[in-house]
Amino acid sequence: MATAAALVLFFAITMYAIFAGADFGAGFWDLVAGGTDRGAGPRGVIDHSIAPVWEANHVWLIFMLIVLWSCFPVAFASITLTMFVPLTIIALGIVLRGASFAFRKAVLNTRSRRRFGAVFATSSVMVPYCMGAIAGGIASGRVPDGGVAGDPVDSWVNPTSILGGVLAVCVTAFLAATYLVFDAHRLSDVDMVEYFRRRALGASVVAGVVAFAGIFVLASDAEYLFDGLTSRALPLVIVSLVCGVGALWLLIRQNHRGARLAAIGAVVSVIVAWGVAQWDDILPESLTVDDAAAPNGTITAVLVATGLVLVIIGPSFALLYALDQKGLLPEESVPEPTPNT
Amino acid sequence: MIGLVNLLGEINPVPWARSQMAFTLAFHIILVPLGVSWGAMTLIANYKAIKHDDKDALLLAQRWSKYMAVTFAVGAVTGTVLSLEFGLLWPRFMGQWGQVFGVPFAFEGLFFLTEAIFISIYIFGWKRLKPWAHFWSGVPIVIAGIFGSASVISANAWMNAPSGFTLNSAGEVVEVDPFEVIFNDAMPLMAAHMIVAAYVVGGFMVASVYAVGMLRGRRDRYHRLGFLIPFTVACIAIPIQMGVGDSLARWVYENQPMKFAAIELVPETSSDVPETLFGYLNDDGEVVGGIPIPGLASILSDPSDGTATVIQGLDSFPEDARPTIRQVNVVHLAWDIMVGLGTLLFLLSLWYWGTWIFRKDMPQSKLFLIIASSAGFLAVVCMEAGWVVSEVGRQPWIVYNLMKVEDAATANTGVWITFIAVLGLYTALGITTIMVLRGMSRRFRLQHEAGQPDDAEGDDVPYGPSAPPDSSHGDKDGEKVLTS
Ligand code: HDD
Ligand code: HEM
Ligand code: HEM
Questions:
Q1: CA gap B194, B189 in Å, rounded
Q2: Is B477 an interface residue toward A (CB < 8 Å)?
């Protein structure tokens, strides 16, 4: 049972990473798109591609939190106590980001748009950084068991956390760029295809370099995780590497659809590798999944809910994505009829 | 400097955590009625539009769905903050009870995911789905909204009537019965009361915007319809709400006598208890001021026993297990506000129905419109007051009779900082939301007067998303939506 709950948790984390991760990454490209005129093209594509889906994507975070606190309440308490600061930044960042994105779409005046846009983009970088930092703190065994707080600063300002944060920003940027190439392609915007293709290439190289540097960081700062990654999880690490290189190659070959899939594969396998490497601890070196697990009744309920998510949400999510990807939900714009009077 | 740091280090996080939780909840709950009921009202307009080829109704439905995109986004992000706050502010509560309290949320997640997806499909599907297919894509929003709020309320109700778990001798949860947790004793009536409240509040809120428009002389059919649909929904819901509230009060009388004593301002156990309007307890715990209506509290608590009904007083609970005098006064005042405003809104609905029955039209007088335009605000206040009754009336317990708030809170002394940050951020968020909605409305109107469709954008917007390529032939497409 506990294992099943852990699988659901990692499923939610993975879904969040590949769907919402790309939305965050799009925010990164929005941030670096340059001045008002120069940035108009990329921002158009970005807006186009994430507007219909970001809210639904965002719910995976909530689902992840719910699974964590229902199935592993003690771990949840330890994490929230220890990671008070970065979690608070995440909470505020999410408010700023979601609201300013929605507002930017709803206002037409350039100055307000620019302001909302800046807030949206900055928070899009801050939030994944903090998430990565938290993951780093957990993975390097800095969150103690028993619903007590670990070090409030060192737990998220440490080599592994910095690695986690930077890697999260790079990976979301990489994912987003591969998605955006595809979206620009769909919009038949040749300039933008080239624009994002170059950036996807750049991001994949940067992410690769960071990941490579990460090997040394983990070896000295998170031995437990390092041991796991170099033994049990090694095949997954290799898969991730292959996917990453594959994405690069496909991007060069201009196979946009394939590049996108390969990028997703790289991200999914990294996350699963993390899980496998620290198995069967939920908080490395202090709390095992079994010890942390809630009674069977709770886990059953969560599994039922997850099953329903797959049955009900699966198809509707697929429908939303299909409509979106076909460009059938192009803009929020509705042509308006003239009223009778 | 060090003295200051020490001083700050000693700031007790509990009151700050309470304030932050209460403030963020109170903010989120304003958006909730819109999320639950606006979808339904939009579908009514949408139905009218397709069925009777009604262009005003179509325009309303389309605009409402665009406003909904904004309010839904704000609801979604403020809801996420709440989820994080459970851990940030009440880690010991979650560590101990998360496995029980968390169960209803698993289903909440399911329903909100459904709602979020279908809202996207609906909002973005106006042009691309056939009219009826598009209409049906909106129906899951309504259903998911109802079930979603029932799930969240179930979690809150569980804090009032905890059940569905077994503790071992060390007080740890060892077994959980999810069914018992979700369908706890308090859940059915509380969920009903909140869902109906969502229709009352959502209806009056939307209607009051159009009432203001009508007062300003915009008395065309479009504004009339924009008023009539939500106002009628609210006026259907409010009498139901009074009935449900009455049953809920009786449930509280039987199952949460402590909260009931605070509601009715009953310091000592007795029969023939008066219903005191306003008034408060002084420091010695005596009722001061107010207008007592003899015997009414007893009669309402159990009509079959009349004034002989005994109501437990605050004195029957140990001092550290009941709300403080200040809290009792807050609960009682909030109660008076909820019931008072509820009654006022109910009378307003009688006026409305009466005029329909006798004059075959809505009331046209200026006075009616003035009251109607404040009804949205009053309904929100009424709902907030109800929540204060429910939450402050449970003090000092976070889980009734099982865990106290102070034992649940975080030990992080920095909560006062996050509270101030949240306060600032939410104030800005609230103001901006209203400004953006008003801006949208003004823009729609100006463009409309200029004979353009809503989305005709000026060329002066180089930044951000560009104009949709095909908005120029908007009207033609609008026809297609209607007729195809
Ligand atoms: C527009 C909204 C609205 C209106 C007109 C009323 N209420 Fe209410 N009331 C709520 C909105 C609300 C609420 C905000 O939705 C609450 C908070 C918790 C809950 O479940 O519903 C609530 C709570 C609440 C509670 C506390 C429940 C608990 O803590 O378990 C009682 C006893 C009542 N109500 C009773 C009434 C009565 C007798 C009303 C008739 C005059 C009434 N309400 C009108
Ligand atoms: C399902 C919904 C809700 C849940 C799960 C919930 C949960 C909580 C929790 C955990 C606390 C802190 C512990 C405590 O003080 O008892 C709290 C306090 C509080 N909540 Fe709620 N709440 C909900 C809805 C609301 C709403 C909508 C309001 C709107 C006003 C509200 C008002 C308050 C207030 C005023 C307090 C502080 C009470 C005090 O400390 O005196 N709650 N709530
Ligand atoms: C009084 C009880 C509450 C009700 C009836 C309620 C209902 C709703 C509804 C209908 C939505 C949909 C979004 C919208 O319409 O704006 C929503 C959003 C949300 N609420 Fe609440 N809520 C309540 C309190 C809470 C609490 C206590 C939490 C804490 C976990 C919470 C978490 C959320 C989350 C995470 C979302 C976003 C879901 C999404 O993106 O679709 N809500 N809420």
A1: 9
A2: yes
